[in-house]
Amino acid sequence: MQFKLPLFPEQASKIAPQVDALYLFLVLVTTFFSLLVALLILFFAIKYKKAPGRKAEQIHGSTLLEIIWTVIPLGISMVIFLWGAAVYFHIERPPANAMQVYGVGKQWMWKFEYPGGQREINSLHVPTGRPVKITLISQDVIHDLFIPAFRVKNDVLPSRYTSVWFEATQPGTYHLFCSQYCGTKHSGMIGEVTVMKPEEFESWLESGKAEGSMAANGEKLFQQFGCTTCHRPDSGARGPNLEGLYGRPVRLQDDRVIVADDNYIRESILNPNAKIVSGFQPIMPTFQGVVSEEGLLQIIAYIKSMGEQQGQPLNNRSTPTQIRDSEVPNIQQQMKQNSKQKPSGKQP
Amino acid sequence: MSTAITAVQPQVMPAKHYLNDNYGIRSWLLTKDHKRIAVLYLISITFFFFIGGLFAAMIRLELLTPAGDLFQSDTYNKLFTMHGINMIFFFLIPSVPAVLGNFVLPIMVGAKDLAFPKINLMSWYLYIGGALFSLATMVSGGVDTGWTFYTPLSSGFVRTHVILMAVGILIVGFSSIFTGLNFIVTVHRMRCPGMTWGRLPLFVWSNYAASLIMVLGTPVLAITLILLALERGFHIGIFDPALGGDPVLFQHMFWFYSHPAVYIMILPGMGVISEIITCFSRKRVFGYFFVAFSSIAIAVFGFVVWAHHMFVAGVSVYSAMVFSLLSFAVAIPSAVKVFNWTATMYKGEVSFETPMLYAIGFIGLFTIGGLTGLFLAALGTDVHIHDTYFVIAHFHYVMVGGMVMAYIGGLHFWWPKMTGRTYPEGWAKLAALITFIGFNLTFFPQFILGYLGMPRRYHSYPEEFQVLNVLSSAGASVLAVGFILPLIYLLWSMRYGEVAGPNPWKATGLEWETSSPPPTHNFEMTPVVTTEPYAYGDEEGTVVP
Ligand SMILES: [Cu+2]
Ligand SMILES: [Cu+2]
Asked: Which residues are CB-neighbours of B445 under 8 A, at least 6 positions away?
């Protein structure tokens, strides 16, 4: 048995000291009130111990005291609430420039893939000084990615992407746990996070170079599954052109406008009829059970890269479906008319 | 009101009471007497408490070493699942309401029985029915979903008897719905002359509040379990995304019941504490109205905080904020109660009989349990400690440090009323002390473990967590002694205990004005209430110092 008795996990991310500060404040509040109650009880127990000749003084209560001990705890808890919410916003919102890593959880292992195509199992390498965002999906049940040294965790759902982000500060190796009970080997679904200096990380990435980047592999799948038969940039295409789709608003048949993020694209592939793009027929077949979770991530990486490569401005989009927010009001009418006709290539 | 004169004379058992009114197994199994039904419940939940405790002991044994070497992973997973299910559904939820509430609530309001005696008996049969399903599940291999049954793990992946167990919980759920219904109607319709709402004992108020939750919340659990069974049995897609469902929907539905269920468990316990503190301080409760009203506030707020179990389950940041805010709000009425109990001791005549020791233990441990809830309600810290041992420690402080202490305290308090005899005070004090020490030793280290990052439901764990786990297991063995002792001496006292007399604590309240044990119809004549509750001091004039 190791006779270590630490009270805190290591602080290895930028957010860790902030979480710990709030935690310490809470420890302070808890200690104060617990001691207050305990000492009062002890004091009353000794001072007002039953003794012959002394009678209890009957007091009915005091509205003033009731107000005081309602308002003060309320005030303190509002401080904790606001502080907690501020830290949470930080934890939940990845910065735009974060380095992307993709993670797939399955009973009972973690698989990670980098945009360059490098892959790892139950092990994750990240650089210091750079925000890293891990987009997560589960292949089966709900898991949860938890890195105590970074003070972050998030459930890994089988139905949609969630994410965890952090900026590591201390090189070293740290625990990575699954903290949502997921069946037999839940406690074996653990791994290691290795934090490296940026240069070391770059050379690590270099050494792990795979056959192709995620986007390149995604392109292969795109061909293989015949997506190209419908999704082509030309005018005769039966499906919308996907170039530049990522991150743009999309108008749906029911006139809702939705931003095309990872989850939207995933849903479009697995459950195409859930949200029909305005101006198109619901002819796309489902790929549920056909494309693996890793494959989906690669296809998404490919769709993402399509826009970047072309660098196309939005009004060159060849479908009537993707629109700029500012365009929404004036083209509303036009869209309605269009949607009655068959989709027809380029828009004037 | 009983006077001091009776206290000096040796007490004699009443000639006729509910225990000797009738003999034979039929007279028990077909009884409509709320007191006998309470005794039936007492026996059955005690059985489940010790079964659940046995599972806990096995869990703590396994966690002595980092490696998962004592049990197989699947076995371990079944152990913590069955521990949770037994303790929550078959012990904690019925504990105070179905045993103590059943026994004293009708007497407290001056009624002959609950409003629906036959339904009351049916509640117990439903409990037993559910319990048989639970036992059948255990015997045929158990379940390994965790007591939370999260989907799609439970609906599509595990290969244990989920449906069997779900049916058991469904049935026992109806038992608590009927108990709640019975209490609500009794409090509304069966109060004796003079027993106004403002004179109801706080135990009645808190059981009333808990009953509201039982009636309104439990059906949601029933629906959730039925949907789960439909998906598992007939592949109807509700929660499993592979079938077109949404796994997070399950969590919303499950916690919509299971968070309020926390209050089903703790509110009646709080009622016990109010009774005990006033009695052993010989004082009116401080702020009667605020203590009574805070029970209702807890019941209402308790329904709108469920998503605080889901801050990292992919809910939007804004809904997380709302649920965090509401969770802080629900903490306030509990704090108000703690302050009022403490203030009740102020300028009282405090004495330290066993029930009081448990009550004081309750206040201390519940305060810690409640305050550590703030760590989990605060979004920033919850992300880190969610699903770790911190959560385990937190809810055991509330459920065991709070609720079980209140239940055992209440059992000692009303034991003379239930059996007509007193328990051995020395042994009882010792047991209370052992429980308190053992409890803290078991669960305090788990707060630290949790912050260090040890996830819950781990069969094996990294080596650096061992010291704290060993401490916790050591504490558990002390705690076990604290729980087994009362079982022994309470049984012993039924035969050898001193005869208690109608009011051994010289407490106020209608239940102390009838004989111990009470007659089958509780009172010789329908009582009439003329004083406010907890009118301590009024009778004191007759005491010769
Ligand atoms: Cu897991
Ligand atoms: Cu809750």
From this structure: B468, B469, B471, B472, B475
Average pLDDT over residues B308-322: 93
The rounded Å distance from CA B294 to ligand 2 centre is: 18
Q: Are strands A123-127 and A191-196 parallel, antiparallel or unpaired?
A: parallel
Q: Which domains does chain A have, with CATH numbers?
A: 8-30+66-210 (2.60.40.420), 214-340 (1.10.760.10)
Which residue in the set B287, B352, B383 is minimally distant from A88, CB to CB? B383
CA gap B99, B415 in Å, rounded: 11
Query: Is A292 an 8 Å CB contact of chain B?
Result: no
Residue A233 confidence (pLDDT)? 77
CB distance A154–B378 less than 8 Å? no
User: Measured between CB atoms, does B73 come within 8 Å of chain A?
Assistant: yes
- Taking only the tens place, the pLDDT of each residue in A117-153 is 999 999 999 999 999 999 999 999 999 999 999 999 9
CA dihedral for B66, B67, B72, B74, sign (positive or negative): positive
Distance (angstroms) between ligand 2 centre and the Cα of B374 equals 11
Query: In sequence order, what E strands does B429-469 have?
Result: none
B503 has pLDDT over 50: yes
Global pTM value: 0.91
Please name the residue ranges forming H helices in A151-236.
198-207, 214-224
**ipTM summary value:** 0.92
Between chains, do A38 and B381 touch, taking CB under 8 Å as contact? no
Half-sphere exposure of B1 (CA within 13 A, CB side): 19
Inter-chain contact A49–B331, Cβ cutoff 8 Å?
Answer: no
Task: Suggest the residue from A186, A190, A292 to mutate for an interface test with chain B (most B CBs closer than 10 A).
Answer: A186
Chain B neighbors of A186, CB-CB under 8 A: 73, 77, 457-459
Hey, what domains does chain B have and what are their CATH numbers?
25-513 (1.20.210.10)
CB contacts < 8 A, A to B, total 296
pLDDT given at position A317 = 39
pLDDT tens-place string over residues B201-248: 999 999 999 999 999 999 999 999 999 999 999 999 999 988 889 999
Chain B within 8 Å of A87 (Cβ-Cβ)? yes
Instruction: Sheet with A109-113: list strands edge to edge.
Output: A119-121, A109-113, A99-106, A131-138, A162-167
Q: Kindly state the DSSP code that residue B309 receives in the 8-state scheme.
A: G
- Is the pLDDT reported for residue A319 higher than 70? no
- For the record, the structure tokens of B351 come out as 């004495």
B74 near A CB under 8 A = yes
CA distance A299 to A63: 65
Pick the residue from chain A with its C-alpha nearest to B76: A184
* Percentage of the residues of chain A whose pLDDT score is greater than 70: 87
Residue pair B452/B385 in contact (Cβ under 8 Å)? The answer is no
Q: Own/partner pairs for A188-192, CB < 8 Å, 24+ apart?
A: A188/A108, A188/B73, A188/B460, A189/A105, A189/A107, A189/A108, A189/A109, A189/A110, A189/A143, A190/A122, A190/B462, A191/A110, A191/A121, A191/A122, A191/A123, A191/A124, A192/A122, A192/A123, A192/A124
Distance A287 CA to ligand 1 centre (A): 27
CA–centroid distance, A186 to ligand 1, in Å, is 4
CA-based nearest residue to B338, from B308, B359, B356: B359
- Looking at residue B455, what DSSP letter applies? B
Chain A environment of B451 (Cβ under 8 Å): 7-9, 23
Upstream peptide bond of B512 is cis (omega within 30 degrees of 0): no
Contacts of B508 in chain A (CB under 8 A): none
Distance B305 CA to ligand 2 centre (A): 7
Nearest to B364 by CA among A41, A308, A76: A41
Higher pLDDT, A2 or B497: B497
Establish if A179 touches chain B: CB-CB under 8 angstroms.
Answer: yes
**B470 in contact with A, Cβ within 8 Å:** yes
